[in-house]
Amino acid sequence: MTTQEIWDAYLEGYAEILAAVGRTGRRLNRDELESRRALGEHAAEAGHGLRALVIGHLAATRSSWPDTTAPDRVLAAVQQAVDAFAEGYERAQRLAVRKEEAARREFIDDLLHGRGEAGRMAQRAERFGLRLAHAHAVGVAVGSEAYDDTHPVTRRVDAALFARFGDRRILLTTKDDRLICIAPGDQEEVVRYFAKQAYAVTEGTGRAAIGRPHPGPGGVVRSYEEALNALKLADRMQLHEPVLYAADLLVYPVLTRDREAMADLVRSALGPLREARGGAEPLLETLHAYFDAGCVSAQAARRLSLSVRALTYRLERIHQLTGADPTDPQHRFMLQTAAIGARLLDWPKKDL
Question: What is the pTM of this model?
């Protein structure tokens, strides 16, 4: 359609309204205002620009100016007509945005929960910049506040990603108060940058985790679940790294795959610590600090705010109670595995 044809289609009845106002000096009535709103909605739905249509109103006003003794009333009518047209246009745009947001949210929920037929999901994903036939990696960030799509952290991370990578088929969204980034699996620098930015903008109060890349529509779900599990595991294991990588934590699910065997190891290796004065917790915490420090006594003592002599006494007490020496490489692996199991199973707070 030419510009004139567009103007003619969306200014239907406008000249007649001006003529009537010129004769009577009246304001636009309810039906006339509603007809302008309806035309504005139709123009927005058809994708025409508001600026060009406002110019069309002004051009039609000039060409259809009526013979009148009340030019101020005609100008007031022009103002009413343009305002009603713009109101309808903006109303249609808001509705379109809400529909788009609802469709996007529904797609994200289906994608992260693995719902929907694979072919249909792939078609929907194209609309949001993803190619599900390829591998994808997912990053998940949490903070001290709940994140949504309008949160300042979300906007700042989005701006940082766009400034650094432009349009690389990246999907940034939120779910369950978390910030989520889905990126092509062969572009790990994207999710790594996302994780660092999500941590940085919270000034150290947040944490992020990155799942491994996996192919296909189910790959997004799998990577997302790995990232979530990494965050849960970090809380349970008291891991303090700001950015966690699921690939680095694979040993922990392996250790808990046979829960009964792990519980038996914890009871057998560490159960005697309950006989210590003050219970098992202080000595178990000593083991955690010792192993986390790479079995360096001075560093472990600093972590526990103890002297090296006091730490050595505790290690000797563990040896006496369990029969296993934490400083002996032959015993160390068993004790460290049992200590990890205790964290995973929340022992001794929970009975095994």
Answer: 0.64
